[in-house]
Design a protein that fits this description.
114 residues; mainly alpha; Rossmann fold; 4 helices; flat
Length: 114
């Protein structure tokens, strides 16, 4: 279970950076996996505090807000949801539920024999 959790966390970090998850299969599926700014800050605080409890939670929130503004406001390739993307809001959901929702969306778009 630890390996799955570690891979899931790595995938979430990649998704946070890229803003998209995608499955390039038969019919294709693209989606946006996101959570509210408050939820993402809460998750980051929990993650960071396990490594360094002395870090200020408000600083973590502020840094994240600045990064979000920079990512969505940049002139080249701003972070946006693709118009055709399925949106999955992971706010308040445990990782297993988020994974189930992602798989449900992918499976609903991929033919069973693909």
């Amino acid at each position: 279970m630890s390996l799955l959790r570690d891979r899931w966390r790595a995938a979430i970090r990649i998704g946070e950076r890229l803003g998209l998850y995608s499955a390039d299969v038969a019919s294709g599926a693209a989606g946006r996996l996101d959570a509210s700014a408050e939820e993402r800050a809460r998750r980051r605080i929990v993650e960071v505090h396990t490594r360094d409890p002395s870090l200020d939670p408000e600083r973590i929130r502020r840094t994240q807000a600045e990064r979000d503004e920079k990512d969505t406001g940049r002139a080249v390739a701003p972070l946006r949801r693709a118009p055709e993307a399925v949106f999955i809001d992971s706010t308040g959901l445990p990782p297993a539920e988020v994974l189930a929702r992602v798989l449900e969306q992918v499976h609903s778009r991929v033919p069973p024999d693909a």
